[in-house]
Amino acid sequence: MGFREIEVTPNQKLTVHELEDVYDSVTGHAFTGSWLWNSALFLSRWLASSHPHHIDLQGKKVLELGAGVGLPGLAAARLGASRVVLTDIAPLLPVLLRNVEVNGLGDRVEVKELSWGSDESLSRIGGSGEFDVVLMSDVFFDQEEVAKLGRTLKGLCGKGTRVVAGCEVRCWTGECLNELASQGFGVVELASEVHRWEGDDGCVFAVYQLVPPNEESCHVEDMLA
């Protein structure tokens, strides 16, 4: 198990461990949530920024879906969230627990299993509207999985829940966002920029807000206030 130290703000550092030997028993491939993705870095730093559409996390209850190694959720805890729940599939929970422990955030951060599209799994997390903010990073890969994600989001979101997703913009990102739009979600781009991480040529990263169907009567400007 390797680890990385991440500077979220000049005064806030987090340590995240990554897994090296956790594989899908069906495909034989490593779970993509086993390591830290650049989208998680981008979203975490956006959360800590003074962007015009900045989210005040102070005292908020936050859920991270498809958390992987959990950087955005851990950053939310450091930025003042009163309660954070990191969720992912069972094989990835040990690294999430390790990252909560190593950063000394066990008083505010919980780790729970959650499979997208599963009502039984969702019932163990909490009721509709229990969380003020839902975070996701690099979850827009497979349209079928995003369809399941949409059903889970509908079960989680209450009036005023803010759903924020960071991702690297790829050729299939639009298809995944269109799938969510077909389920009634509004999609608002909050930020977009080309970022060059060490060792790459630069990619476009974006932060989107997903406006739940039960907020469809609200003006987008109100949701971004």
Q: Can you describe what's shown?
A:
The chain is of the alpha/beta class. It has helices spanning 38-47, 71-78, 93-102, 119-123, 143-156, 173-182, 220-223; strands spanning 2-9, 12-18, 61-64, 83-88, 109-113, 133-137, 162-168, 186-195, 203-211. Strands 5-4-3-6-7-9-8 form a seven-stranded mixed β-sheet, sandwiched between helices. It has a two-stranded antiparallel ribbon with strand order 1-2. The longest helix is centred in the middle third of the chain and has 14 residues, at 143-156. It is globular, with a radius of gyration of 16 Å. The N and C termini lie far apart (41 Å).
Which helices and strands appear, and what pairs or packs with what?
Elements: E1 2-9, E2 12-18, H1 38-47, E3 61-64, H2 71-78, E4 83-88, H3 93-102, E5 109-113, H4 119-123, E6 133-137, H5 143-156, E7 162-168, H6 173-182, E8 186-195, E9 203-211, H7 220-223
Parallel strand pairs: 3-4, 3-6, 4-5, 6-7
Antiparallel strand pairs: 1-2, 7-9, 8-9
Structural class: alpha/beta
What characterizes the major β-sheet? 7 strands, mixed
Helical content class: 25-40%
Mean pLDDT: 86
Instruction: Figure out the total of helices.
Output: 7
